Amino acid sequence: LSFLALSANRLRGRLPSEAPSVSQLASLDVSHNALTGTIPFWLLAAPFQMLDLSFNALGGSIPANASAHYATDNTTSLALQVNQLSGTLPVAWTQALHINVLNGNLFACEMPRFWELANRPIHDPVASTYVCGS
């Protein structure tokens, strides 16, 4: 099993806190459900080619040490939009090419020093119009 697509299946509840034993899983899509709770760290640490958790009711923050491979591998994509996520995003995600995390979440923005980039992904579809914490 390399691609698991469970989008729009009326799934409810929390994501498992322990990683399942599906080592070959490359893509996971559980978007458009009613999933709640926080995103387990194993999901953000796993090197998925595509991870789509969008359009759920997931909350909490993204750990600063979440996987940087979304920024370093331009063939990967990450979608977390339209949840209830907050806090700040990992700095490593600022350069990710295929990322959609800002819309519909409540991420804080830190004012960068003049030599630093803002902590928002510059390639996110709403990066130029995103209002911090909205």
Folded structure, characterized:
The chain is built from 2 helices and 10 strands; from the N terminus they run ββββαββαββββ. The strands form 3 sheets. Strands 1-3-5-7-9 form a 5-stranded parallel sheet, with no helix packed on it. A 3-stranded parallel sheet has the order 6-8-10, with no helix packed on it. Strands 2-4 form a two-stranded parallel ribbon. It has helices spanning 41-45, 69-72, and strands spanning 3-5, 12-14, 27-29, 34-36, 50-52, 59-61, 77-79, 84-87, 99-100, 106-107. With 134 residues, the protein is mainly beta.
State the total count of DSSP E strands.
Answer: 10
Largest sheet: 5 strands, parallel
The percent range for helix content is: under 10%
- DSSP helical segment count: 2
Question: Structural class, from secondary structure content?
Answer: mainly beta
Low-confidence stretches: none
**Sheet with the most strands: spatial strand order:** 1-3-5-7-9
Rg, Cα atoms, Å: 14 Å
Distance between the termini: 37 Å
Morphology: globular
Proportion of strand residues: 15-25%
Please, what is the average pLDDT?
89
Order of helices and strands: EEEEHEEHEEEE
